[in-house]
Design brief:
With 136 residues, the chain is an alpha+beta fold. The chain has a single domain, classed as Nucleoside Triphosphate Pyrophosphohydrolase, CATH 3.90.79.10. Helices cover 21% and strands 29% of the residues. Strands 1, 2, 3, 4, 5 and 6 form a six-stranded mixed β-sheet that branches. Strand 2 and strand 3 form a beta hairpin. It is globular and about 40 Å long. The N and C termini lie far apart (28 Å).
């Protein structure tokens, strides 16, 4: 389960994306999209919202399913399939704070993100493509 959260500043600048710095292996110290594993008793949507809130403190964002990523080798811990959700918010409405396995959380300009862990560069690319198609 991963989340791509886009944010807009009040000044109308280019959109930003919310990233966490991983506090644990694998990829400790690398930037990534917020996410984690689905618990047995929860829906996919509930898991996405929970992971987003747990790792970043951001809640109340309407999430839409983007795509399912399941290429072998996408996670060094084993075979992991991730259903990805995306959403929009105003950066001023959310004081993002790192929690659980996130060491840091930060808004990055979508065209100035650091290299991301796992296959999150590919996920972000698809989310940006969807975003551009929706804004037409």
């Amino acid at each position: 389960m991963d989340c791509v959260i886009f944010g807009l500043d009040a000044d109308g600048a280019a959109p930003k994306v919310l990233l966490i710095e991983r506090g644990r292996e694998p990829f400790k110290g690398r930037w990534a999209l917020p996410g984690g594993f689905v618990e047995m008793e929860e829906t996919l949507e509930a898991a996405a919202a929970r992971e987003l809130a747990e790792e970043t403190g951001v809640s109340g964002v309407a999430l839409t399913q983007l795509h399912t990523f399941g290429a072998p080798g996408r996670d060094p811990r084993g075979r992991v399939v991730s259903v990805v959700y995306y959403g929009w918010t105003k950066t001023s409405e959310h004081a993002a704070r790192a929690a659980t396995d996130a060491a840091k959380v930060e808004w990055f300009a979508v065209d100035r993100t650091p290299p991301l862990a796992f296959d999150h560069d590919e996920i972000l690319k698809l989310a940006l493509q969807r975003l551009r198609n929706e804004r037409r």
